[in-house]
Every structure is written in structure tokens, then in C-alpha cells.
Amino acid sequence: MSAPVYLDHAATTPVAAEVRAAMLPFLGEVFGNPSSAHATGRAAREAVDEARARVASALGCAPAEVVFTSGGTEADNLALRGALDRHASRGRHLVVTAIEHDAVLKTAEELAGWGRCEVTVVPCDRHGVVDPEAVGDAVRADTVLVSVMLANNEVGTVQDVAAAAEAARRRNPAVLVHTDAVQALGRLPVDVRALGVDMASITAHKVYGPKGAGALYVRRGVPVAAQVSGGGQERARRSGTENVAAIAGLAAAVGLVEAEREREMPRLARLSERLVEGVLEGVPDAVLTGRGAPRLPSFATFAFAGVETEMLLTLLDRQGIEASGGSACSSGAHMPSHVLLAMGLPPGVAGGALRCTLGRATTADEVDLAAREIVAAVTRLRSAASVV
Fold first, then answer.
1. Which of 105, 226, 228, 235 has a 20 to 30 A CA-CA distance from 299?
2. Mean pLDDT, 10 residues at a time, over the chain (388 residues)?
3. Whether 325 contacts 310, CB under 8 Å
4. What is the pTM assigned to this prediction?
5. Could you give the domains of the chain?
6. Contact 59, 67 (CB under 8 A)
7. pLDDT of 146-173, one tens digit each?
């Protein structure tokens, strides 16, 4: 059997050979603890410092503003929980959007459930776009933090974070602004100064790096309360002995995708459009979710009425097509995506979601095969449903 066609890069990406090579020394001879003062420890510290500088260069910030974490989820949690804990004297109101990743939405809901904050959820339109002015209108005098993701993880829509930040600060100049830039990194420019954010989350495994490595940009002068206490690593913002190999892998991955972005994204845009055309030709009533909005070039996302995502993915997997129904973090939940419901899709349509996300190794032949198999699977499932 031929190798599967992998169209789930928004869930995770294969670790690039260049990244593995960058990590290997720290799994062998360069094994020191970065906090140790001897030569072996100093070699590890130099690697961490170099990685911090490389990540900072990609984000357009100072190295001291980069806090290494275990990934995007921890970075999002540190932003929300850390801001709320540190700035509780200013208020306890959070503003998030309806299309945020669960690492933001569920964290906000949990904090509200404990009585630690109030949450306002700003809706999106049918294209999955949030109005920046609506974000500003939700801000109050007691708002501590606003969180607006840069690119959505389920349909790939891109938000005008800079405009949302400006609107928020018009209402409350002291409000902090965070963006989840996990999906945007390597696909869009992520310049934290141009975005006007105080905090931004990234992770390695979406950009051909290792799982378990990420970072939170925290603007200089913005204190956040540490959520992990201990030895005071990461300038006391995130304690714990640094995972030097993973951090080196994060830096190598960021450098790789940034170097390739301007030539790779147009290629992926062409392939995504080819996939869309193939599917819509065979299933004319398919809903192309996010159509009409700016979105990541590597995304081709659909919803099919009368089809259950779980069954569709099972059929595609049998044919060697690996995709997802939305967020991989909630793939076990047999319910329509909160993002698609927020976009106004009826549950009967949202329940037939399919997310195809392309990557560095994706070819035109793979896209054509995937389109044929998607059409065949949808046709088969609808035929079976009509018989029943």
C-alpha cells in the first residue's frame, strides 16, 4: 500500500530533518543543565540563549521578551491566568472571541466558573471573521485582557488583530492584548510590534518542530504571574529546567518556515484551491467554510450536509487520506465544532465538517487523489443515509 496522503498539518507537522539535526547534540554530548555554572552547563545555556534570540528575531521582539513553554496551550494559559492573577487590582473581566482555540475559551470558562473573572465572548460573522470594533465595544473599565487569535485553527480565517488591539485600547488604554498565533506562524508575518499585542503564543509542532516546545512573547514592562513556581527559570515567569533539545528544535523550526514562507505559501495556496475545485466539482452543495474571508493559504475546509464527520474520516482513512474534522485537540468529541456553530452553520451541516491542511511535502497528485476520495466518500455516505 502506498504511503498515506497527510492533510492534517494544522494538527501537527512532521519534524523536519534540519530540525532533528539541530536537536541531536542536546540529546547526547551537550547534556548540561542550563542553570549549572560549569562548562557543560554553560554550553546548554548558550544554546538556550541562541534559540531565544532566533525566536525573538522572527517575532520582531527582544530576546528577553520570549518565555519558553511546553507549547501553545501552556502559553495561552500563562497569558490569561498570568494576566488575571497579576492585575486583579485593576479588574477581573476578560474578552475573548467565539472562535478561539479551546486553550483560550475553556481556560476563560474555567476561570469564570471558579468566580475568578467575568468573560465576554465576542461573536463572529458567517465567514468566521470577528469585527475589531465589536472587540473594542466589549471592553470595560475593569477589563484586564483581550484575546483575539491571529488565524483560526479550524477554518483558517485571519483576524485583524492590530485593529482589534487599537479598538480595545481606545476604550481602555490599560487593557492587555493577547493573540494566539500558533497557526499563523510560518504562514503569515507574525510581527508583534505591528500587531500591537502585549502577548503572543506560538508552538513548534505546527511548524515542523518537536511537540512539547512553545513560547509566549511578553512585552517588556508587562508583568504576568507565574503559573509554575520553582527555581525561577525564564526570569521567574516559568520555572522548570529548560528542555534544551526541544527549545533548539523550536528555534530551528521557526527559522526554517520563516525562510521558506514567501515561496511556500503561494504554492500551498494554489494546491488548496485545486483541492477546493476538485471537491466542489464533485459535491456542488458542499459548504466551503471560511470562503469570502482572508484565510491561511494552507487550509481547505468544508462542511457536508447529511454526513457525519466521524464516518467521513473513517472512510477517508481507509483510503489513505489523513485529515480531520476540526481541532485535533477535540477530535474525540462527537459534536459540531464551536467555531462552525459560531459562524451560523446549522448543526446538521456543521456535523459534517472536514479540515484539510497542506504542508511542505504535499503534491498536486496527492491533492487530486484526495479530492477524488473525498467526493467518493461523501457520495457513499449520502447514498447509505438515503437507503436507511
1. 105
2. 92 98 96 96 97 98 98 98 96 98 97 97 97 98 98 97 98 98 97 98 98 98 96 95 97 98 98 98 96 95 96 97 79 73 94 97 98 98 75
3. yes
4. 0.95
5. 5-13+262-387 (3.90.1150.10), 17-255 (3.40.640.10)
6. no
7. 999 999 999 999 999 999 999 999 999 9
Catalytic residue among 61, 117, 124, 329: 329
Known catalytic membership, residue 356: no
Q: What is the dihedral of CA 324, 330, 336, 338, to 10 degrees?
A: -110
Length of the chain: 388
CA distance 159 to 161: 6
User: What's the Cα-to-Cα distance from 360 to each of 8, 45, 137, 204, 278, rounded to whole Å?
Assistant: 12, 32, 40, 15, 20
Residues 233, 239 contacting (CB under 8 angstroms)? yes
**Burial (CB count <10 Å: 0-12, 13-18, 19+), residue 12:** middle
Phi/psi at 149 (nearest 5 deg)? -70, 150
Phi, psi of 301 (to 5 degrees): -125, 140
